């Protein structure tokens, strides 16, 4: 788990220019959520939303 935190901090420094002291001063839980956020097209989709996107109606009709 510490390796994940270190990797996230490394990515924040490399990709976003966030300094280590700023990263470490931020709340761990929230910073971890931010670093693991995915773009909308990479997020899991609810099965019914996916069916609707195909043009099908939920309920089998």
Description:
With 61 residues, the chain is mainly α. The chain has one domain (2-53). It is built from 4 helices and no strands. It has helices at residues 2-16, 20-25, 28-35, 47-53. It starts with a helix and ends in an 8-residue tail after the last helix. The mean pLDDT is 80.
Indicate how many domains the architecture comprises: 1
- What is the count of β-strands? 0
Give start-end ranges of low-pLDDT stretches. Answer: none
The SSE string, one letter per element, is: HHHH
Q: In this structure, how is the largest beta sheet organized?
A: none
Report a brief summary of the structure.
With 61 residues, this protein is an all-alpha fold. Helix content is 59%, strand content 0%. The chain is elongated and about 50 Å long.
Descriptors:
mainly alpha
Topology:
Blueprint: H1 2-16, H2 20-25, H3 28-35, H4 47-53
